[in-house]
Structures
1.
Amino acid sequence: MSKSKPVFSSSIGKKLIMSLTGIFLCLFLVVHLVGNLQLFKDDAGLAFNKYAYFMTHFTPIKVVSYLLYASVIVHVIYAITLSMKNKAARPIGYAKYDGQANSKWNSRNMGILGTVILVFLATHMSNFWWKFHNDEVPYIEYRTDLATGQTTARELQASEFHDYQETVENNVQILKARDLYKQVDFAFKNVALVALYLVAMAALAFHLIHGFQSAFQTLGFNHRRYIGIIRAIGVWVFGVLIPIGFAMMPLFFFFK
């Protein structure tokens, strides 16, 4: 590598950035899944709608969100750049090459898996993030009796809602919020959307099984003492538990 060439513009530098952004995105998946588990609560969406407001209005979380968007963009751009560079460096395939014998299926098809995930992300953002931020979701009011803990809910008309508001009147806690929970419920009645989510979660599983371990290897964490732990986390946490957790959400609302 030339001394005058910036490190991060080299192939090694790009792989390093892809590894760092990939690990950051993996951490986000964990946090996002934990938050989205509020969807399974039997409270008419109260906990989830509070979570949605917190995630979009708490300043430190908003800063992390911008880093997340940047990480996705950089990760995708560098993945495409490296893929094109590798293909250009070897325009003619080797005379003898058995892909199945030399590498695993997911490692050979990271581009396809990534494309499926990218389509999913665009669909996911348009259905939920965009509508939540542009007042295209219903509104709801929760009334919780602080003496009994009982909560009732009713849909609000647009004229009744001005902004997220939480007050207490006569020992009753009143919360007015955008009802993203109802939007989730509505969206996942669409069988095509549910199917896309399931396919995307399968793609995510295969992508993470290879990508998680590969990221740590790029960063130099490939010693035999801990490579087994990294591989196990990549397979069982990011390749199994997290994709299944996300896949359960559309199935839960579709069959509910």
Note: The first strand starts at residue 139 and ends at 145.
2.
Amino acid sequence: MAMRAAPGVRPLGLDTMVRLQRGRHTAGTPRRLPVPDGMTAPLGCDAVAVPALLGQQVLPRLPRVGCVYADETHWWWIVPSDSDYALEWPAPARYATGAIVPGSTSLPALLHRSDGTVPYTPPIPLYLALCRLTNTTPTWSRTVSA
């Protein structure tokens, strides 16, 4: 049995319903950090979140910086997808697969834009800077126990 719209009411198309659903965000709904206009992310996007104070210390230690987003409490560094492979990012850093910002009603603001056309901060220099600032031994330098 086919459903028909009431007289004078235009039915919503699938594109409209998808757009409306994507626009719905409630408190606590995870949101994805956007890739700035004019940039592409051919390797996908993940993010590394660090407390804002630590972010300020990391920035001058990096040879190249991609897109960095910030809110009142954290800085979010865009890295290529799977930059957590075989790495334990040191606490208090948090690795966010898909560049998802959890529990946020608004997205962090773009603090720094990459000079190129890709949004990435190279993950290994970022990882090493965080290890140094948190006095954490990099994963590959740790003693393997039998």
Note: The chain has a mean pLDDT of 85.
3.
Amino acid sequence: MGESIEIGDITISVTRKDVKNVHLSVHPPDGHVTLVTPTSTRIDVARAYAITRIGWIRQQQEQLRSQAREAPRSFVGRETHYLWGRRHLLRVTELDAKPEVKLDHRTIHLQVRPGTSRDGRAKVIHAWHLKLLHGAVPPIIDKWERRIGVKVHRYFLQRMTTKWGSCNSKAGTIRLNTELVKKPRDLLEYVIVHEMVHISEPTHSPRFFALLSEHYPSWPEARRELNELPVPQLTGS
């Protein structure tokens, strides 16, 4: 079981890595706090450092709490759904045939078998989202591999509640939040570039941000826009 630090009502997950500096992060969408620390750092020293940043932690969590929240979806007709940053209306057709999803301008057409439950409809939409992401992600990776000079051996798509993406620098793999299909395409690209830079620099060190600024100068604006967009309710789909 991993280590954690309790400071009042805040729980901080601690990860020990072969790094030189301590790095503290507050992750969207729910404000989960993590602390990456050198392997030799005593837990009381890590806690003392976290206490000095408690004001910053609360400020970041408050910003995340103030974000607009998407209501859980019921997957019924005339419901609003986001795709690539744009609002679309859902149209549902019940037909005794293979379920499918089609996009027609600003309407998402969902075809399901009669009596399909809300969860069943959600699974059909989720499978469609995965298909869209699998079509969008590889060209972006290919484009940036040449620019950054790294190799992504594999990428994974996963529902996440605390991160937009993650990277295993040793394995050369990146993991992306499936919710990114609902955000503008340029923000998907930003997250991919962010994680690809981590292959060269695993931590959020000064070198990491220097590399990110070199390759993607508009990253502060992209990060701010991403974190200001509506995020899903944690109990929703």
Note: The longest strand covers residues 86-94.
